[in-house]
Amino acid sequence: MSCGNIVFVDLIEHLLSELSKNDSMSTTRTYIQCIAAISRQAGHRIGEYLEKIIPLVVKFCNVDDDELREYCIQAFESFVRRCPKEVYPHVSTIINICLKYLTYDPNYNYDDEDEDENAMDADGGDDDDQGSDDEYSDDDDMSWKVRRAAAKCLDAVVSTRHEMLAEFYKTVSPALISRFKEREENVKADVFHAYLSLLKQTRPVQSWLCDPDAMEQGETPLTMLQSQVPNIVKALHKQMKEKSVKTRQCCFNMLTELVNVLPGALTQHIPVLVPGIIFSLNDKSSSSNLKIDALSCLYVILCNHSPQVFHPHVQALVPPVVACVGDPFYKITSEALLVTQQLVKVIRPLDQPSSFDATPYIKDLFTCTIKRLKAADIDQEVKERAISCMGQIICNLGDNLGSDLPSTLQIFLERLKNEITRLTTVKALTLIAGSPLKIDLRPVLGEGVPILASFLRKNQRALKLGTLSALDILIKNYSDSLTAAMIDAVLDELPPLISESDMHVSQMAISFLTTLAKVYPSSLSKISGSILNELIGLVRSPLLQGGALSAMLDFFQALVVTGTNNLGYMDLLRMLTSPVYSQNTALTHKQSYYSIAKCVAALTRACPKEGPAVVGQFIQDVKNSRSTDSIRLLALLSLGEVGHHIDLSGQLELKSVILEAFSSPSEEVKSAASYALGSISVGNLPEYLPFVLQEITSQPKRQYLLLHSLKEIISSASVVGLKPYVENIWALLLKHCECAEEGTRNVVAECLGKLTLIDPETLLPRLKGYLISGSSYARSSVVTAVKFTISDHPQPIDPLLKNCIGDFLKTLEDPDLNVRRVALVTFNSAAHNKPSLIRDLLDTVLPHLYNETKVRKELIREVEMGPFKHTVDDGLDIRKAAFECMYTLLDSCLDRLDIFEFLNHVEDGLKDHYDIKMLTFLMLVRLSTLCPSAVLQRLDRLVEPLRATCTTKVKANSVKQEFEKQDELKRSAMRAVAALLTIPEAEKSPLMSEFQSQISSNPELAAIFESIQKDSSSTNLESMDTS
Predict the structure, then answer these.
(1) Which H helix or E strand runs over 872?
(2) How many helices (H) and strands (E) does the chain have?
(3) H/E run at residue 559
(4) What angle do CA 968, 973, 978 make, to 5 degrees?
(5) 3-state secondary structure of 375
(6) Global pTM?
(7) What distances in angstroms separate CA 751 from CA 239, 712, 730, one per listed residue?
């Protein structure tokens, strides 16, 4: 609705007035329908009138008129969907009304059906209907419409009120389950749909629902659902043999979603459900869509339960599935092949012992699949699934195929030559090559390996990655069947793949080379040319880190022990370090030095006899006054990496040489010396750790660097090794936690946090004790320390942390600004890595969090810089921290947020500083997807600040950076606008419509908007590429 406000107010007041009069039943119905229609079209405008409207609608629900009841409940549904905030106080009333009328069927008696648990025959139901015809005709019965409206309204409530999930499982879930027996097909479908919505609401928050801490609290939505599974199955299994196709489809959709939410939930109920699935697969009256749904359901159940559960039912399941593989409709065939592939894993699991005899079923499964594999004129999806299914059959049952195996492998060879099927075939061959059955692949390797090698030059990333995986497993398991010529063909293709432009492909290529070095070392003589040059080049890349760096270290260790000519320890050491020692070349990135040092250490670990000499040389390089800073940097880092794994305490002058480097004029050399001392200490704690602690105490000028050394020790040393020193380290750190220098305090806090993980029961209470310290520096240090005790994986400290993190977060009320800021940073870490720690505290924490989003004038000051005055906002950092927390909460705790209160602060952020505007634009993009109806209600208030950002002009005499910042602001604001426009009906907002016209008429804004929409569509296409 786009009428002006005066007209709108008059209209609503008129409707309320007429409803209050209630002159006639027909006009009352019309007015209720009219209000529902207005709500659907302009929910964000009608919300403020709900306090007057809802009591009237509730009153009319009690009038004995089924048509009026239907319209009233439809109006409730509209209010729930379109006015989520304003309807909130009335949700319980609406639920109770819906639950009452969900069972409203005055002309029918369900008691007979309830008594007969085995009533599977639909004809029995017809007799019951006939019996009631004496008293009334179905044509006169309007009650089904009331029940249907109630089911749809419950669906709306369940879909929009995330925060009431636990309550729904207590009240709504049992009521819906009891109505799966509904006699009217359309109503039954809506009851099923409402329950599906409930299951889907349970899915997104599964991460915290499954959290062990959450589970300890007793009844969570997931545990309540688990307890209701027997009732669900009992209600469904009777429906699975109904004549109604629609009902059976609903059953399969329900079971599929249930298993996705609760894997393994049906373990005890498979015997009851299998007959129903088989009934739909065999029933000649079943539609194609029903068979597809039945197969899809069976596939999900097979994937999410133990194979043993199905063994008693394999004999019954195989014939109908095999028949579906032969079905003329390609979609049924495709789904049946997926099921067949899973059945193969069930009848002979390779990852666990099994006594089940698969032999009677092999022939049928093989025959139906080979027929599809051979067919040339079938659908692309069927081709691919036939290849995958046959790959699974050979992988799990290949030792039973006899003479059929070589001929089937020849078909794979043909599919490998086909551009359309080659990627799927590569994946199938990888599966077969990795089989513990050691399938004989010799018949196809001679021709197959060169074909695989040729794929490495194709411009298809997924094919390169798949091929590298296949080649790696072939080298591991079939090296005695591969010839030098085959391997050379692969090696010829590798150099272009080793590049910083695609680190994942590089990692896979390096892993292949490592396997080659271990299994087929004689082939390595060929890599000393272009392959090695690319590898050395990649080591020097600043992008080499993580998995690719680990793969590189493994490769050098495997290579150096092969004894290949010109690729010995000293040869490789020279290649790695030559750019640093050469006068002509220089490495510009610090990361390159770290990577080279790690490679040097990897080589030295593999050849420990070479260690003393090379360590001695590095020590001389650090001492030598003629050494460049680059040489010293590499030497120190290498000493650190080698000393981490090899005890260097025999090098007597090492301590003094490193401490001398602490005085270097180069910050990078000092940092490397600090890292080296910490890393070397890990190699021999008794020798070096007391020395480091002593130096921290006696050398105040070097304290910061020495604390970094200590941080490296605490981060890398074993818990057992560190335990004897914990008390000494703790006492030392506490002396420095009140240091005025923030950088030092941050290092101390990280050390305290990581040290606490070693003995949390003793040390966490000590940290907590410092919260009452009179020093704001000490308070900020211990709150920061807690951040370093939180990680995204389970740890022994978690239950202890959960009990006391509320005390640490009380520092959000601390009088000191910096303490409050670090409290927000710690809160953000918890919300991101382990939301279960803070979920139950949100009611008390959020008001303080939101309070920190406000601009405080008392924190803004003017600073004179020569002739200019510069404004400094001391509150900016804490506001940024608060908005970062808000952004994190959208992903981890959405169901616990009052989204309208949240939006109030997003609106304020849209008018704040550049950094905060950028954050709030990102939030709007997320909110448009997560809570579209709530955002729609606030749209008019969001559009204005977005428009202001997009139309702001920078002064002509501003510096270049100001123009760049404004351009980036505009682009980000436009992304938010594009996201808002994806909300259905957003364009109906007069303000948004006007802004769209403004964008279209401004060439600069129109060009930005168009490029954003193009970027968005291309991103969507990329995400759809499942290869």
Answers:
(1) strand 868-873
(2) 55, 2
(3) helix 546-560
(4) 125
(5) coil
(6) 0.82
(7) 61, 9, 9
